[in-house]
Amino acid sequence: MKEKKTQKYQKPKMGHWQIVNLGLLCYDVLVVNAAFFLALWLRFDCRFSEIPEYFLEAYKWFAPFYTVACILVFWRARLYRSIWRFASYSELLRVIAATVITCLIQGVGTVLMLNTNQWLGFGVEFGIRRMPWSYYLFGIILQFFAVLGIRFSYRLILLLRNMQERKMSESSATNVMIIGAGAAGRMILQELSKSNEINTKVCCFIDDNPNKWNRYIEGVPVVGNRDEILTAAKKYHIDRILFAIPTATAENKRDILNICKETGCELKTLPGIYQLVNGDVNVAAMKNVTIDDLLGRPPIKADMEQVYEFLHGKKVLITGAGGSIGSVAAAQVASHHPKQLVLFDVYENSVYEVEQELKEQYPELDLVVLIGSVRDSRRISQVFETYKPEVVYHAAAHKHVPLMESSPNEAIKNNAIGTYKTAYAAMMNGCKRFVLISTDKAVNPTNIMGASKRLCEMIIQTFDQKIKEEKAHELPQIFAHAEDDEVLTETEQVEGIKTEFVAVRFGNVLGSNGSVIPVFKKQIEKGGPVTVTHPDIIRYFMTIPEAVSLVLLAGTYADGGEIFVLDMGSPVRIDTLARNLIKLSGFKPDVDIKVEYTGLRPGEKLYEEKLMAEEGLKNTPNHLIHIGCPIPFDVDEFVVQLKELMVACYENRDNIRELVEAIVPTYHPAGKHGSEEKGAAYEAQRKQMKEA
């Protein structure tokens, strides 16, 4: 015997939407009949006894046929398969079409019923009869609104519920002011209005165009120009300000944002006009206002055509390629189609990230990434001998002033001796141009980092002078270990060398590793205090792309031996910068977040100079790039002193500052003089700042 199957087959259950549509079908059966009965009743003054019997009989006999016809038409019009919570224009058209068709059916059907006496059995003479016109008119109107109303009522309920929720949450909503009543501002308003995810309320617009004042954009008033920002912020209890003028100049943007930050509101801005051109104007495209938005000068735009011609088809080496400057330099060089790009850095993690980005953006680029230190004579010589770079951008350096003050020997080893070894390897292997990236801290240095960079500039000038005098063979190869003598390139190969050595000097770079901006932001996130070393300290600032583009451009002007100085505009007071950042974060300085003065750090100056007074200034084809005339010094004596300095720093002697001071006449270590001299120096610096 066969075993009985124990498995039971269950009938599939009806889905929720099927139950809803079954209810709609029953509802339609009722309303399509009730609509025309009410129309007949209304036609005869709402008196049932006044309705002629043959009209009632025609309605009654045709009702079953009309009901079936309506259900079939509604089914074909997909009125039982739509998701009515998302009902839209398409569903409305289908209801209208179904109503028109059923109206024709009603008209034809009732006429046939009234005029077929065999069917009705009233003995009425054969003739053309019809229901009253008002019957068809009122019936179809009642049917249309009954059928449409039930279907759109769900969406209406949801809409009313959302409106109620929005109204209830207005007290906790983020009140927004939009600066700019133009195309970008309108797009931002539309997105905020449509989004249910963002609990925001746009309260007003600000625009400098008087034709827009006291008018409305989608119900939001344009209250006035920038002078009304503070008043409107108080009146509407603004929490967030969106700057939506992508075409604004840097000066206008700075002036408006300076007013906005006084409100204590959160600020966001569109990056630029390309957002409007590309149609990318939306809330996601808005970025937090950063301190470079308040620098008050237009971005420096260098003509990179000369750079393209200079770098195209050449082998380029960048040392320190994983750092702030080196990484951006690598990206800009890669965009100019070099024959080969070699990245060299001692820290593998940062240069690895640069490598991955360049491979993704420039898959055809011949990219070589090498790990090593410029302090390693054998390694740096091997790199030059293997890859024979034609252009070198030397960005590898220790730059952190306080850390170098506590480890002065490391500053000399890496910055000065490392630069000499790299420059020597470049000279010996036919490099055409060597560009040293220097700093304004090399001018009248008060710290060992600045002094070490001044040594780098002097090294560059020494190489340039010896090559021009055709005495390159007099430049010794310096190294820390005696055994290196057997593996390094012999100096007999120096004949015919034409390498051009130049330096490019600029100040602080916004967003670079170790800069004050990231430190201030972290302190603000923690609730303060924000620490400033001195209320009068000032610095020159430039963005990383600006600095790098000018460095590359300056390299094309080189004849050898120059110290190029980049025009960085007006200096910025660090105390003002810190307070602006606090305001941009929505806080009040010294109220919500305190600003504390900690005193100048070891080796720190009140202000940085871009030139020594003795150097003078020459112009270049670019008004943003100048040339400082070299200060003469005895290069032969300098080479001897440098060798002694190398030995001393590798022996980690304690008197390294005294040795550097003997080589660099402009180096005056901070703290060496008494408090009276120190105070006098501060006053002299403050006087020079005011004159500037």
From the structure above, extract its key features.
single chain, 692 residues, alpha/beta, Rossmann fold, 3 domains, seven-stranded mixed beta sheet, 22 strands, elongated, disordered N terminus, disordered C terminus
Report a brief summary of the structure:
This protein is an alpha/beta fold and about 700 residues long. It is built from 22 helices and 22 strands.
Residue fraction in strands: 5-15%
The gross shape turns out to be elongated
Whole-angstrom Rg: 41 Å
Q: What is the fourth-level CATH superfamily of the largest domain?
A: NAD(P)-binding Rossmann-like Domain
Oligomer type = single chain
CATH topology category name of the largest domain: Rossmann fold
Main sheet specs: 9 strands, mixed
Q: Which residues sit in consecutive blocks of at least 5 with pLDDT less than 50?
A: 1-7, 122-127, 272-285, 485-492, 673-692
Number of distinct beta strands: 22
CATH class of the largest domain: Alpha Beta
Number of domains: 3
Strand order of the largest sheet: 10-9-8-11-12-13-18-22-21
Tell me the distance between the termini. Answer: 111 Å
- Classify the helix fraction into a percent range: 40-55%
